[in-house]
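Fill in residues.
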């Protein structure tokens, strides 16, 4: 059956709607249509911390989605750029991206792109600034990974210091996201040295594995200690999204049992990216940075 959007040049007039939590089911159906996992918990988190936009399919359900997550006024992430396969290559992806960019205003916008989205993002002015390699497997730490002093579970009183540490690494205040992680995550850890916070990490469950992210720290040794603690006792496989700039952490993850599954391009619009990526070892997720 021909798409109702066929033959509408540019589809620039198709309405884009701000979605609400009542639309989660249709977002999941759209994800399944594109062979993405139906990650309900992740979508619900995105509805809490970001702005979810969609195009309604006149035949029912959603024809496309995208999510804009703002970190202060200067930085934002775009994610979940999805167009139903029956409406592909008709301009809806471009329409959604232009809407999200317009909403972002003057902010620097970043995203991680699969090979399917990269061409579209390049046409919209995004530049590739890095590569994120996703590693998955059964991570088995060695005794030496637990030897760093000052690692302990995070508690509410750490929030202010954790927010400051994260903001230095990510280059923007991620207050709502990081605060929410304190309850969303299965595990959180901080590293303290001489009364100062030098590391923070969280582990949360995706449908079929545990993600250690974000992992923020002053050194690779701190990142390794955080990850070892975060995934100890976790059931199932572990996933780490590691920027290829972190070669030492990547080698450690592989030595502890992970395998590279796929990679994505880190792309920026209105850049450069703020912050200190050398201290941001893994993102919360590819969708959130
Ligand atoms: C990627 C995706 C969102 C594109 O949506 P779409 O509605 O088909 O894209 P559009 O029709 O708006 O295309 C926009 C432009 O990108 C180009 N384009 C679209 N898909 C492309 C592809 N796979 N390879 C190269 N270029 C592509 C189009 O030619 C078009 O160029 P133009 O504006 O110069 O004509 C859609 O294919 C999709 O949902 N894929 C599965 C999920 C996914 O991978 N999302 C991206 C995650 S990073």
């Amino acid at each position: 059956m021909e798409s109702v959007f066929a033959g509408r040049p540019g589809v620039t007039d198709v309405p884009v709607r701000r979605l609400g939590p009542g639309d989660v089911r249709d977002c999941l159906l759209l994800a399944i249509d594109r062979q993405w996992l139906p990650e309900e918990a992740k979508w619900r988190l995105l509805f809490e911390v970001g702005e979810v936009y969609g195009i309604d399919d006149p035949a029912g359900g959603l024809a496309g989605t995208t999510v804009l997550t703002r970190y202060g006024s200067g930085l934002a992430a775009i994610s979940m750029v999805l167009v139903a396969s029956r409406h592909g290559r008709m301009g809806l992806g471009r329409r959604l991206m232009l809407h999200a960019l317009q909403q972002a205003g003057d902010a620097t916008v970043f995203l991680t792109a699969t090979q399917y989205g990269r061409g579209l993002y390049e046409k919209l002015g995004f530049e590739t600034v890095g590569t994120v390699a996703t590693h998955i497997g059964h991570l088995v730490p060695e005794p030496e990974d637990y030897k760093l002093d000052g690692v302990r579970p995070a508690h509410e009183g750490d929030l202010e210091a954790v927010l400051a540490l994260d903001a230095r690494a990510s280059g923007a205040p991620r207050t709502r996201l990081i605060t929410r992680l304190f309850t969303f995550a299965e595990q959180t850890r901080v590293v303290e040295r001489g009364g100062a916070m030098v590391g923070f990490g969280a582990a949360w469950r995706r449908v079929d594995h545990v993600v250690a992210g974000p992992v923020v720290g002053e050194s690779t040794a701190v990142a390794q200690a955080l990850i070892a603690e975060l995934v100890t006792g976790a059931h199932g496989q572990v996933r780490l999204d590691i920027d290829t700039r972190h070669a030492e952490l990547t080698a450690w993850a592989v030595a502890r049992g992970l395998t590279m599954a796929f990679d994505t391009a880190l792309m920026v619009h209105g850049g450069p990216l703020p912050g200190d990526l050398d201290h941001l070892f893994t993102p919360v997720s590819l969708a959130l940075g």
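The first helix runs from residue 24 to 33.
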